[in-house]
Amino acid sequence: MNPILESQLLTNRRHFFGKTATGLGIPALAHLLTSEAPASEDDILAAAQKIAPKAKRVVYLFQNGAPSHLELFDHKPQLAKLHGEKVPESYMEGKRFSTMSAAADKRRLLAPLEPFKQHGQSGATVSSLMPYTAKIADELCFIKSMHTEQVNHAPAINFFLSGFQLASRPTMGAWLSYGLGSMNENLPTFVAMTSISKGSSCGQIFYDSYWSSGFLPSRHQGVKLRAGESPVLYLKNPKGINPTLRRHMLDGIASLNEAKHASVGDPEIQTRIAQYEMAYRMQTSVPELADISGESKSTLDLYGPGVHEPGSFARNCLLARRLLERGTRYVQLMHAGWDQHNSLTTELYKQCRDTDQPSAGLVQDLKQRGLLDDTLVIWGGEFGRTPFLQGDINNRPKWGRDHHPYTFSIWMAGGGIKPGMTYGESDDIGFNVAKDPVHVHDFHATLLHLLGVDHEKLTYKFQGRHYRLTDVHGHIVKPILA
């Protein structure tokens, strides 16, 4: 058969439109063009970065499952006085809870499990469950008026990390990678790590959407580091492959990809080339990063005994510090096990033991190294827990609290945040926001502002619409800015 005719017969729809895009596109282009050309991506990024940044990098200590604000940071003496009484109906009107809650007539208020004390010059109230966090209270800004819109875990986590409840949008780390770029070409700009306490019965699934790039180019996606000798899959050369041979192979693949890009113009091909090169450089940088043998005993002691166990929250906190000081822009640690529907009196204590010292140790370590001033540290979950009991009040070993989106607490430190302060208040039983509400979109707007990014101008055009992390919402919480 004639080779030209054979090629024509084998041409599929994708190749046809790829080869004829110019001819087919000219009429459409003539129709769409206006007197003003749309802003380029470089123009958008330049316009979004006209704020003086206070922070260069972020570490988000995300507590999957939702810690109980009423057990940890939001002291409500009235709850102790009303322990066992039914929640007034006025509080329940129009409220939505998960289907795991007991019937409304059985919802009884539950006193905090452990006492609270004031700490530091700021007088911040912290539970005895968090003794190490209490010691650094003057470094922290507690926000006690957070609220969200989701009542179940995955949608609520997606909402906190991407501004949208469904798993389809870019997450915060991806937006920062897109908007601010890399500070170290040998390490990823956005890294995620996960952990869960041993023996936990209330863990959450870690979905890939929690570090997704969504519709942004995939080079902005978070790289997940695993525990053990191979933190990144397929990074080591197979047996019989030396670095020189690997380099020749990558050069050959790059040439093929460049030829394909010249033919079809797909930007994801350039991403693929860049990711191959990043993986090649990470063959040296990641093993060095994961080797903590050079850390001093005093540093390791800051993070607690769990730091010696790969994959633990404590080890991940230490690795986060090592990533941040080497130029990684955004590190997202996710620790599961806070979903205490019937295990407040058991697993809450375990979670606090596993996370309290490492979280405080990370803040102290960053400060000692002069990194805290331009590193934003965030600690919190996707929502809080109900002031009322889930379960039988006469069966203390099975006490629990349900999901509560209407008010809860987080803390932030460093990176332009005013230290030693508490912002916002919940009502007398920790049910609703009473003063200075902070929505998730406000949280995102403030985070971007601290990094020198205008949340209204950092956009990406997808399917005909300009998207942003804060959607069409968000106000900067100025009182917490240093």
Could you characterize what this model shows?
A hairpin with a 4-residue loop joins strand 2 (116-119) and strand 3. The termini are far apart. Helix 11 (243-264) runs antiparallel to helix 12 (267-290). The chain has a single domain, classed as Alkaline Phosphatase, subunit A (3-Layer(aba) Sandwich). The strands form 5 sheets. Strands 1, 4, 5, 6, 7, 8, 11, 12 and 15 form a 9-stranded mixed beta sheet that branches. It is α/β, with parallel strands linked by helices. It has 16 helices and 17 strands. The model is unreliable at 29-36 (pLDDT under 50). Helices cover 35% and strands 15% of the residues.
Number of helices: 16
What CATH architecture do you see? Answer: 3-Layer(aba) Sandwich
Distance between the first and last residues' Cα: 75 Å
Helix content: 25-40%
Percent of residues in β-strands: 5-15%
Total number of distinct structural domains: 1
Give the CATH level 1 class.
Alpha Beta
Give the beta-strand count. Answer: 17
Give the class from helix and strand content and strand pairing: alpha/beta
CATH topology name, in short, is Alkaline Phosphatase, subunit A
Q: What's the Cα radius of gyration?
A: 25 Å
Spans where pLDDT lies below 50 across 5 or more residues: 29-36
Please describe the biggest sheet, giving its number of strands, its sense, and whether it closes into a barrel.
Answer: 9 strands, mixed
Give the overall pLDDT as a whole number. Answer: 88
Layout of secondary structure:
Blueprint: H1 3-10, H2 13-19, H3 21-32, H4 41-48, E1 57-63, H5 69-72, H6 77-81, H7 89-92, E2 116-119, E3 124-127, H8 131-135, E4 140-147, H9 153-162, H10 172-180, E5 190-196, E6 223-224, H11 243-264, H12 267-290, H13 297-303, H14 313-325, E7 330-336, H15 347-368, E8 375-380, E9 384-385, E10 403-404, E11 408-413, E12 421-423, E13 425-426, E14 433-435, E15 438-439, H16 440-450, E16 460-462, E17 465-467
Parallel strand pairs: 1-7, 1-8, 4-12, 4-15, 5-6, 5-7
Antiparallel strand pairs: 2-3, 4-11, 8-11, 9-10, 13-14, 16-17
